[in-house]
Amino acid sequence: MAAQWITFCGVDEITAGEREVFDTDYGSILLMNVDGTFYAVENMCSHAEYELVDGEMSRYKIECPKHGAWFDVRSGEALSPPADRPLKIYAVQVDGNDVQVMLDIPE
Fold it and tell me: For the chain, which residues make up each domain, given as ranges?
């Protein structure tokens, strides 16, 4: 596997407070804009394998809409039960006008 920066969207396509799911060959990734900074996490709750995209957001936290577990989108840390495992997080960078996420791509 080789880590590669993959362009997901332009910086103006996801405004502050918004989010979007990108279904890739490497999983479903939730990309969020929190006050102008982008974060990417696996779009699946670590507790019950339920999509996070429709969960409530509160600054750097997102709630699983299924059972109410909260996660920190910066670290993936599970902040409340019933989740006890972190989310997978992805490095994000802005390159010019592009928002890029680092993915492990098979060689």
Answer: 2-105
For the record, the structure tokens of 96 come out as 């010019």
Query: In CATH, what number does 2-105 get?
Result: 2.102.10.10
What is the Cα–Cα distance from 100 to 37, expressed in whole angstroms?
A: 12
pLDDT digits (tens, 9 = 90+) for 42-80: 999 999 889 999 999 999 999 999 999 999 999 999 999
Positions of E strands within the chain = 2-10, 19-24, 27-34, 37-42, 57-58, 61-63, 70-72, 89-90, 92-95, 98-105
Q: CA quadruple 21, 26, 27, 32: dihedral positive or negative?
A: negative
DSSP secondary structure code for residue 88 in this structure: P
Spell out where 44-84 has E strands.
57-58, 61-63, 70-72
Q: In angstroms, rounded to a whole number, what is the distance separating the alpha carbons of residues 2 and 15?
A: 30
Residue 24 DSSP class: E
Which tokens is 57 given? 């957001």
- How many other C-beta atoms can be found within 10 angstroms of the C-beta atom of residue 90? 22
